[in-house]
Amino acid sequence: MAGGIYLIQDDDRLVEMMEQPYDSEDQLQDLLVTYPNLIAGDQIDRATARRWLLISREAAPSDEETAVQWSLDHLFLDQNAVPTLVDVRRTPNAELRQKVLGQSIDYAANALFYWPIDSIIALFEANCRDRGRDPEQIFEEFLGADANEDRFWQKVKTNLQAGKVRLVFVADEISAEMRRVVEFLNEQMDPVEVLALEIKQYVSEDGLKTLVPRVIGQTAEAQQKKSSATRERRRWDESSFFAEIQARRGADEAQMAREIYLWAKSQEPEVQIHWGTGDAYGGFAAQLPQKGRKPYQLFTVDIAGRMEISADNYGSQPPFNAEENWLELRSKLSSIGLSLPIEPGERRSPSLALFTLQDESALKQVMETFDWVIEQIQTL
Question: Is 353 helix (H, G, I), strand (E, B) or coil?
Fold first, then answer.
């Protein structure tokens, strides 16, 4: 065994704690679920220690548009709604190290597009039920009684779409080679944060146990690049949005977005277009103002190549908060690929990939459907 650490007991007795490997990866994974603070949030952010909300263990995002499935050991969120993807391994060798790094980057890259926010909420609620806890109570304990839960989940979604995630590789020992790779990735991948977490276990002869976490990968260069103080929030507009979506998604999807935008513009002044703000994520929302009520947000279109609606926005206001009208709306939107929940007002954000609208008739059907939606709202 490697050298240990020492505890001074109340009777001034010196107790030697010797380093001891974990019995299995499962043991280390269980510890992270029971004691999330082992992810050393005070070391990750010394100014404001990160706190952790466990979304799921063995989280597996999937999407009907792909046959590929992913699974990671743990998914956490911090108090700023940054998704934190945790992969746990016992002392990875060179071959396993390459596999772990590749898999985790794969998780992050694909989760950004194939992991809708309603799936993350469902994972969180299922995890709470499995642990016999009330999701509302856990959320309140995490962010406080005055926190806006809907706004928090929306921020999670924005961070995912902006690629603002954190990868954490956990092991009982991080090799020098692994450290160099993690430091390199953390310096080069922006806004993704890449860290390694070494959690050593020390045990005494009489059964005392100590766990010592150490965060690796935060070089001065990486911290400077990722400092929020160095970022300027931008307000997107027509020019910047279409240039960015074409660069990210290609000319065909950019054209689909432009057709939808031009349709919304043609509905002015009844429909208003609002542009989002953010350093990496951009999009526009088409809204229908309502006198004396909050505006109807018809849909949003973003640079991830998606049209999205808010089920809660539609289901909480007339005329679609009435059961008969809600069922008709569900049928209409289902025909264009937007699947509303059975009950109005349920929190969900159905989305539609723009590449599915390249057929002219499909795009025309979308526009005709929202013509009908506007007509129904204006008959109030």
Answer: strand
Task: Tell me if 15 sits within 8 A of 204, measured CB to CB.
Answer: yes
- Closest residue by Cα to residue 61 from 70, 49, 52: 70
Cα separation, 260 vs 284, whole angstroms: 11
Beta strands in 159-309 (DSSP E): 166-171, 193-203, 209-216, 272-275, 283-290, 293-302, 306-308
Say how far residue 230 (Cα) sits from the centre of its chain: 22
Q: What is the pLDDT of residues 105-161, one digit of tens each?
A: 777 776 666 677 888 898 899 999 998 999 989 988 998 877 888 889 988 988 888
What pTM, to 2 d.p., does this model score?
Answer: 0.63
Query: pLDDT band for position 1 (50/70/90)?
Result: very low
Residue type at 27 in one-letter notation: Q
Mean pLDDT of 207-213: 91
Distance in angstroms (rounded) separating the CA atoms of residues 238 and 333: 26
3 state DSSP class of 56:
strand
